[in-house]
Every structure is written in structure tokens, then in C-alpha cells.
Amino acid sequence: MYLAIKSLLINIIFPLNFWDKIKFIKLFAQKILNKKIVNPSVSFEILKFKNTEIALSSSKGDIWSFIEIFDLQEYRSIFDLLSKENFKPFTLIDLGANIGLTYLYFKQLNLIKNYIGVEPLEDNIRSLHFNTFSKNSLIIQKAVWTDNKGVNFSNDKENNSNSISKSGKIKTQSITLDEIFQNQKDDIFLKMDIEGAEYEILNKDLNTISKKVKYLAIEFHNIKDNNYQKYINDISKHYKILEIKKDTEDYSLVFGINLNS
């Protein structure tokens, strides 16, 4: 616990100015106290973090993602892999973009050439537009799926996240990977955090991904209830992979670099 608090102080709290420290502590306290957010799309603060303004609400999803990316350095492993390669700025295709924190991480490292953020949840869109605003950014308010006929999903208001579900009460437009990949000629970094729908997407589109995507980051959910090892084996046919498992959370993060690139 002491080391976790020390890390949070060094990596998150100290880089903030006084008033932004107060704002973050307030948001973090609301998260700890499980304070219900009526509307995350308007209940957020603007923090200046390492010369970058970030719109952040106190939802568990926003706060935990911020800590994972900027404190725990979730993407550091793939950045270390990239550093050993002859890499250049890429197009980040962000499936399950949430509020765009992955974009901000790679932007600070000067690795973003273009950005496509795909996010169906209305509550996230305003923050996502703010955090990724650029002439080279495109936001698509849809869910990525195996077809473009629309899909149902259920929404977890507490964590400001959603998951595709046949019994879900929220209907949203959908878009396929083929549509997203159209006219993409630069190197692609594909980040996929789509709350369980990754299995369906990989079943249909892994071959397409392997032909189009140079760098890959997939968050696997509910790995105990799916044939997780099969997907790892299938991905490893096309990618040099680095796997980070979090078994206590039934969760795994997989990074890959295309073997044919």
C-alpha cells in the first residue's frame, strides 16, 4: 500500500499545480467514496497534467484508467518494445476509446500521427472530444462489431463503461473493422478495450487485423469463461507478443508487434 501511494504521489500528484492537485484529490475521493455521478459528460474537471489539459470525471472508469496509464504505466511495456524497433509515428485506432487517455499517453511521447477513436457511450463523448481535439483526430460514436446493423449494450454508470449484450437495453449504431480500416495507409496501432466483444471481433477479423495492423494492444475480459489460450495461440501466429495477466481480475492485456512488418 505504501509503495502504491508513493507511486501515485510521484507520478500523478506532484506534476500537478496546487489547484489541480485539489481537483484530482477531490475526484479521487469521490471515486473512493463511491459517490454516484448523475451525468459524467458534464461532471468533470479540467486538469493540466505535464503541459496537457485533460478532462476527467470522478467515475471509477476515468480515475482508474488515468492511474493505470500515467501511474502504473500500462503501455510502458509496448513502448519499450517499440524502442527496440525502427518505429515511426502511427495512426492510433482506439476501439473503446472511453475519454481518450491512450491518445494522450502516446501524444506525450510524440508517437501519434493520426487518431481514430471509436466510442459508443454518450457520457464519454464530450470528454473524448476535448482530450483528443486535433485536426488529425476523428471520433466515431458507434460500437465496433461484426456488422454495421446496430447492436445492444448494457451500461455500467458507476464505472462509465459499457458491454455489448443481446439483453442490453441500449441500442447503438455499429461499425466494422473493414469500414474503420478503409483508406488507412500509415502504420496502425490498434488498441482494443471493448469489454468482452474482443472475442467476436477476433473470430471474424483476425486475418484482416494481421494484414493491416502493425502494433496491437488488446484487453481480454472474462478470460476464465472463454477459450483464452486459443486466442493467444492464434494471435502469436501473426504477432510477436507480450502478455500481461491479471488473474485475480480475470483479465489480461496482450501487446503485439506484427511479425511481417
The coarse overall form would be globular
Q: Give the spatial strand order of the biggest sheet.
A: 5-4-3-11-12-14-13
Helix content: 25-40%
CATH class, anyone? Alpha Beta
Written overview of the protein:
The chain has 261 residues and is an alpha/beta fold. The protein has one domain (74-258): Vaccinia Virus protein VP39 (Rossmann fold, 3-Layer(aba) Sandwich). The protein has 9 helices and 14 strands. The strands form 4 sheets. A 7-stranded mixed sheet has the order 5-4-3-11-12-14-13, sandwiched between helices. A 3-stranded antiparallel sheet has the order 8-7-9, with no helix packed on it. Helix 5 (101-108) links the parallel strand 3 and strand 4 (112-118). The relative contact order is 0.11. The mean pLDDT is 87.
Task: Map the helices and strands.
Layout: H1 2-13, H2 18-32, E1 44-49, E2 52-57, H3 60-70, H4 76-83, E3 90-95, H5 101-108, E4 112-118, H6 122-131, E5 137-140, E6 143-144, E7 151-156, E8 161-164, E9 170-172, E10 174-175, H7 177-181, E11 188-192, H8 198-212, E12 215-221, H9 228-236, E13 239-246, E14 251-258
Short description:
This protein is of the alpha/beta class and about 260 residues long. Helix content is about 35%, strand content about 30%.
Primary descriptors:
alpha/beta, seven-stranded mixed β-sheet, globular, about 35% helix, 9 helices, about 260 residues, Rossmann fold, three-stranded antiparallel β-sheet
